Amino acid sequence: MNITNYISGELRQEYQYKSFVPSMINHTFTWDDPQINTLLEDATRALGELNAFTMIVPNVDIFIQMHITKEANTSSKIEGTKTEIDEVLLAKDQINPEKRDDWQEVRNYIDAMNSALDELNRLPISNRLIKHIHAILLNSVRGESKQPGEFRTSQNWIGGANLATAYFVPPHHELVPDLMSDLEKFLHNEAIYVPHLIKIAIAHYQFETIHPFLDGNGRIGRLLITLYLVSNGLLNKPSLYLSDFIERNKSLYYESLTFVRTQNNLAGWLKFFLTAVIETAKSGVDTFKQILTLKQEIDSVIFSFGKKSQNAKALVDFLYQKPIISSADIIEPLGVSKPTANLLLSDFVEKGILIEVTGLQRNKLYSFERYLNIFSKV
CATH number of 3-286: 3.90.550.10, 2.60.40.2250, 1.10.3290.10, 3.40.50.300? Predict the structure, then answer.
């Protein structure tokens, strides 16, 4: 189907309201718009460059966890949480009680992503996997009463106080299983010739339009983008996350999705999505360049530790994954005593690697500020 002939769906009269029933998508999509071709080429190239960096950065896995933390925090922020990235890195008992619900939601997103990446070794992207990560996302948070891990069995809506005043009403819950089955088939249908970036762009639109869960649809939909790219070999590591771009262009993001439904403007959505991939991949490359520069500087400092360099190297590797720590955090991972941990942290402060951020005599916290700032400003 040429996207100029694409009909996004239709409004269906329900009891006292109308729901939107999207068209099935498990078929080939084509286009004549040269701008889409150019954007697709640029996005593919940018994604390839980002992927190349994940292969040349030494021990890249120790840096990936911070990428996931950044994504979890930003994706959750789109949905209204107020937690900042430095707070996400703290233990729950160190968080202001008023912010602990938000903190838990972000931590659940991190757990959901890590679990999903692990499950990809055994399961393809599927409704089973989607339900699994949704259950983790809503565990012990404000959405825990909204059927975690199950497609909805009641009507939901977006915006407005009720169905009558809603900005958008997704399809009736009885249609969700068939629509999600069609979406799953589309993702794995090798008989249709749709480039991966176009396929996941369409799939993301479709997922958000179906809105299969009572809560967490936005976060799951954004998480699926990265999972798809990893599962299909476009990324070796989960290093591309669009939430930062979407959060900065939130109005245009929702407008682009809406115009598909109201004006059948799939081309506009594809252009937004491909632009997001280009800009995010470039930002990701810049992040890895900054990490490499910092790593080279820190490695030269670690060399000056002499006999302590083995413990110092182990601490740096730990900091790349958890850049805000206490002395208790490193005793077990490094296999050192408490006095040794305290001395090592003092050395790191003296060398300018860490900053003590509490000003307290006890329960001190240390921040790897230069590294944390790389993720705070992108």
Answer: 1.10.3290.10
